[in-house]
């Protein structure tokens, strides 16, 4: 029987260049070490579709090991067996950053999983957080312990990396560097909405519109720096439902998501009716609302916020926001069993909204959100 690793390298490259789908290309590279060394992103010719894939929650009637990925570019859904990210119980979910998933097991262990290469990296257990027990006791369901995570790089297997997470209640920040044994708390004083890795620093935005920065390469990485604050004329006494930080073509943007309650029931599912996008100058602390982000699209939700360049407007709509349902109350609402209903494409210029996913799903895990998974070539 032929050993796959002994296949002629030129033939391996020829096959790789004929693969049309991203997930198939990544899986192909990970058949063996020799195939991975023979191929790289240059061999993937179908790059016009740069949109992330939407990880859908496992179905109730499935075994929990199979995950579906929806591609909004062609409205196709593919299914992968991914037991590493399976829901251990009703209180588990997967979050994503730079193409990797973060999953929590029943024993509170944390693992980074690449969904297509199946590569895994173990992180310190939840019990390695400084105040893990108090925070786990203050939230509804252990699956809500980590709200979001951000990686410094997608190349986790061949380089040092740092993970920053939003965790606990109130939402705080902690980080882990490769080689550490524990999670280190970066901030306890703010209710953090989002965090982004931008120009070699971590930036976070909190519930009052303040942007803070951490330089983890410095002498004292625990010191935060207040670098910007949303002007009072923008806030005007309003309460923020949700703020996002996202880098777009080298510029830092703050996105304000506006939601409405459909009823007086505080725990009912809410609908997004508008977004406001602000371009922030961190040095001058100037905020300018913009209606045009150029030939780019933003993808927001429980994933680490990202933007992509639109190479084909028939595949991805430029100057738009693709959003998923990240309102935790909608997932915990008993009457509606799970969230995932507040999703769509928002036109930044005219404020119109259209759906991108018209399928139906019933959650195996009540708190598992549909999550954008960025394309990464490891």
Automatic annotation (TrEMBL):
Highest taxon listed in the record's lineage: Eukaryota
InterPro entries: F-box_BR-signaling, KIB1-4_b-propeller
Domain KIB1-4 beta-propeller: 69-347
PANTHER family assigned: F-BOX PROTEIN SKIP23-LIKE, OS07G0183000 PROTEIN-RELATED
UniProt protein name: KIB1-4 beta-propeller domain-containing protein
Species of provenance: Citrus unshiu
Lineage: Eukaryota, Viridiplantae, Streptophyta, Embryophyta, Tracheophyta
């Amino acid at each position: 029987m032929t050993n796959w690793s002994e296949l002629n390298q030129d033939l391996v490259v020829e096959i790789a260049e004929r693969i049309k789908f991203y997930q198939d290309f990544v899986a192909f590279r990970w058949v063996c070490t020799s195939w991975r060394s023979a191929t790289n992103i240059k061999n993937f010719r179908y790059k016009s579709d740069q949109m992330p894939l939407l990880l859908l929650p496992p179905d109730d009637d499935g075994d929990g090991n199979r995950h579906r990925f929806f591609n909004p570019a062609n409205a196709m859904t593919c299914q992968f067996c991914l037991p590493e990210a399976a829901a251990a119980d009703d209180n588990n979910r997967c979050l994503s950053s730079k193409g990797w998933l973060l999953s929590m097991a029943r024993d509170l262990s944390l693992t980074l999983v690449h969904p297509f290469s199946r590569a895994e990296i173990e992180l310190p257990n939840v019990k390695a957080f400084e105040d893990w027990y108090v925070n786990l006791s203050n939230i509804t369901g252990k699956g809500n312990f980590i709200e979001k995570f951000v990686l410094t790089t997608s190349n986790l297997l061949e380089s040092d990396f740092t993970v920053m997470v939003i965790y606990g209640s109130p939402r705080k920040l902690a980080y882990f560097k490769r080689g550490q044994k524990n999670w280190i708390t970066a901030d306890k004083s703010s209710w953090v909405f989002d965090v982004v890795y931008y120009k070699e620093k971590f930036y976070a935005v909190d519930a009052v519109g303040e942007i803070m920065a951490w330089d983890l390469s410095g002498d004292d990485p625990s010191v935060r720096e207040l670098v910007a604050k949303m002007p009072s004329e923008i806030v005007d006494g309003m309460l923020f439902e949700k703020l996002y930080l996202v880098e777009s073509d080298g510029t830092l943007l703050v996105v304000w998501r506006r939601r409405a309650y459909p009823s007086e029931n505080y725990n009912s599912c809410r609908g997004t009716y508008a977004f406001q996008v602000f371009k922030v100058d961190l040095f001058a602390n100037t905020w300018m609302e913009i209606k045009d982000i150029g030939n780019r699209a933003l993808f927001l939700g429980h994933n680490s916020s990202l933007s992509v360049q639109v190479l084909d407007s028939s595949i991805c709509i430029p100057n738009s926001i693709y959003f998923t349902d990240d309102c935790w109350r909608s997932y915990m609402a008993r009457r509606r069993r799970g969230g995932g209903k507040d999703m769509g494409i928002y036109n930044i210029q005219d404020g119109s909204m259209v759906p991108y996913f018209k399928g139906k799903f019933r959650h195996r895990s009540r708190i598992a959100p549909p999550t954008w998974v960025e394309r990464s070539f490891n």
